[in-house]
Amino acid sequence: MSEDKLNKNDYSPKLEITRRGFLSLIGLGFLGVIGSLVLQGFSAVRSIIPNVLYEPPKKFKVGPPSRFSEGATFLPERLFIINNNNEFHAISAICTHLGCTVNLAQYSPPKTYISRRTGKTVDETFEFHCPCHGSKYRENGNVYAGPAPLPLPWYELSLAPDGQIVVNTDKIVDHNFRLKL
Ligand code: FES
To answer: DSSP letters of 24-88?
Structure first.
């Protein structure tokens, strides 16, 4: 028998696709499409979730007490450190109306007013004014004019082992708080 004859009648089982095999191939293709769609969906969702949070830390060092002279010092973290005869406290500079940064208004000689709460005369060397809608806050952060609904909050202060003052903007303290050195 010649080789040609053999090839003509040659039956190749490798090329045969059975019905079951065909259905398996379709099934695999379908799974591939589903997998790809799931991956795309995951990537789309992942792309809108940031990897890094750019929020500033809530607790941070602001330097040694000697950095702060008597009175109020503004810091870029949007707060004031008040040094009153080496007793320190921190007041937020974020207006409680719509969040503008308040300005320091200094008075020399001191401005005098009568406290509505105690009826006593109070001398102030500074207060805080909001440039956006005119809210005004006393030296202790209490609001007395404008649309601001709440006083400026006071933040907790502590002293780090290296002697620097630490501000914790996550912890609001009352007006009796002082960091005494
Ligand atoms: S944001 Fe300060 S008064 Fe409106």
So the answer is: HHHHHHHHHHHHHHHHHHHHHHHHTS-SS--PPPSEEEEE-GGGS-SEEEEETTTEEEEEETTEE
